[in-house]
């Protein structure tokens, strides 16, 4: 399968400086899954900037930021 890094990077909400996985969704998901986290695309802009990618943080804030 062809990687769509350039296309994905345009829409990736990750604000982590110099993220090596930006736009490479399969690597990003693997990385965060191994740590019991979710990638930035699961969070609102405000929550993503906290860098707390924990599943607990997602659950706690899901309904609050769901739109």
Q: What does this entry look like structurally?
A:
- The chain is built from 4 helices and no strands.
- With 67 residues, it is mainly alpha-helical.
Estimate what percentage of residues fall within beta strands.
Answer: under 5%
Give the integer mean of the pLDDT values. 90
Distance between the termini: 33 Å
Order of helices and strands: HHHH
Apparent shape = globular
Per-chain topology:
Layout lengths: L4 H7 L13 H10 L10 H4 L6 H11 L2
Key features of this structure:
mainly alpha, 67 residues
Task: Write a brief structural summary.
With 67 residues, this protein is mainly α. It has helices spanning 5-11, 25-34, 45-48, 55-65.
């Amino acid at each position: 399968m062809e990687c769509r890094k350039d296309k994905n990077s345009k829409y990736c909400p990750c604000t982590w400086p110099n993220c090596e996985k930006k736009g490479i969704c399969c690597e990003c998901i693997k990385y965060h899954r191994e740590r019991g986290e979710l990638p930035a695309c699961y969070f609102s802009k405000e929550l993503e900037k906290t860098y707390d990618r924990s599943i607990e943080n997602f659950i706690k804030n899901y309904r609050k930021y769901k739109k």
